Amino acid sequence: MGKETAGRRLRALTVAAAVLCGLALVPAQPAAAQTGAMIQPVGGRVTGVLSNRCGATDSDHYGVDVAGNAGMAIGAAYPGTVAFAGWTSGGGNSVTLSHAGGYQTRYLHMVQPASVALGQQVGQGQVLGYVGSTGNSTGPHLHFEIRRNGAVHNIAPAYACGATVTKGAPINLPFPDLTPAGAAPDRFAFVNSAGVLYAKDGAYSSWQAVNAGGATKVVLSGNWIGWVQGGNFYVKEGVYGQWLTLAGGGQVRDIAVSGDRFAFVNSAGVLYAKDGLYSSWQAVNSGGATRVVLSGNRIGWVQGGNFYVKEGVYGQWLTLAGGGQVRDIAVSGDRFAFVNSAGVLYAKDGAYSSWQAVNSGGATKVVLSGNRIGWVQGGNFYAKDGINGGWLTLAEGGQVSDVAVGGDDWFAFIGGGNFFAKQGIYAGWLTMAGGGQVGDVDIAT
Questions:
Q1: Are the beta carbons of 110 and 129 closer than 8 angstroms?
Q2: CA within 20 to 30 Å of 56's CA: 5, 63, 86, 400, which one?
Q3: Phi, psi for residue 343 in degrees, rounded to 5
Q4: Cross-strand partners of 356
């Protein structure tokens, strides 16, 4: 909850959902070429750009190669229709999408058959498959091509050998006749008293049941929905995606998701993490962990009342706060925060900077997202913009039990067992779910 936007997640009890109706207006689209209309389908290191194989030359190479861990999700660069989904001798498991304006994109070497079918309509960022090394390949990577009207699109200005690209970032090329597809919708979720997990995209859309019951916790990140059910860790891509069991055995106690990184803590307090759905779990510690959070490349956890963090699954431990008094933690980018046993909230920007006290005590929960710091104190919801910003009381009355912040403009809290949210500091609160039974909230924006 309130982990990262990454920020995105939630849990609850029996619910009567109040659904508000809204009208969506579609703005007119400009006809001019748009830079960045397509987005990067995966993140990783560039190992080949057209004929330049980053150390060799191959005149028959028509795309960019991005090396990454096997199992990383591959997202559609732009909305389109599946024109091919199958096997080719060179490309292995592959997908080709047709787009507006005569564009096509190709995605090769996937670890298993495509997650989409011929003729299917897909949205920007929708998962097509997962990084692999099938076909003519020497290691896990995505070969990504852009063509227009059958001709190879010159992607060279947007990629450099050895450079790193970020999944979901705009591709810095002009695309005549294409317009940016827009950001992913705001996502909300909750679990009721029967363990039924509900999710929806957009504040005014209808709730959709994700499971039939038994869930105890839910987290949101990007297009991922993750939850604990029967002590197992499940995920799915989007509200209508298929379930996938990430960790079974009935021993999962806490979970976290950030991008293509997944983590969980088992009943012995062993923290496991991995990058990519189909990669192997790696033990981060030997036991004693009680909570885990993920943000970007950061892994943070509480163990023995101390706050630890590391950079990536294979990074070195760093003790951010010791003394055995840490009760809650949050990480967002290079910002870290924790609440100690006296309820004093501390935050800092940068792993090696000094901690700054945000309050004088009484805090029970902290969340970070963007530049926002949010916390519960005395049953009220407080927030500030940056460590040195002024306090702002978002919800008072002593009934706030949990809070969440998504991006820099979405806020949510549980008050009296109901789920409230709003977009913007000074906007009015929306009742997302009533009935007095909601127990945990979060938002993904």
A1: yes
A2: 86
A3: 80, 15
A4: 347
Q: How far apart are CA 322 and CA 307, in angstroms?
A: 6
Q: How far apart are CA 164 and CA 74, in angstroms?
A: 16
Backbone phi and psi for residue 218, each to the nearest 5 degrees, phi listed first: -135, 145
Average pLDDT, the chain: 86
Buried b / exposed e across 249-288, counting CB within 10 Å, b at 16+?
eeebbbbbbbbbbbbbbbeebbbbbbbbbbbeeeebbeeb
Q: Measuring CA to CA, which residue among 255, 289, 250, 293 is closest to residue 270?
A: 289
Contact 114, 129 (CB under 8 A): yes
- Give the pLDDT score at 190: 87
CA distances (Å), origin 96, targets 35, 69, 76, 99, 135 = 22, 22, 10, 10, 15
Task: Please state, as a whole number, how many other Cβ atoms lie within 10 Å of the Cβ of residue 122.
Answer: 19
- The C-alpha angle with vertex 255 and arms to 249 and 258, in degrees rounded to 5, equals 130
Tokens representing residue 164 in the block: 């790193």
Report the distance separating Cα 270 and Cα 287, nearest Å: 4
Q: Is the dihedral angle over the CA atoms 68, 74, 75, 78 positive or is it negative?
A: positive
What residue ranges define each of the domains in the chain, with the CATH number in brackets?
39-175 (2.70.70.10), 187-444 (2.130.10.30)
Q: Are 143 and 178 within 8 A, CB to CB?
A: no
Up-side HSE of residue 12: CA atoms within 13 Å toward CB? 33
Rounded mean pLDDT, 51-64: 85
Alpha-carbon distance of 186 to 53, in angstroms, equals 39
Main-chain phi, psi angles of 334, to 5 degrees: -95, 15
Inter-CA distances, 161 with 53, 157, 182, 278, Å: 8, 11, 29, 26
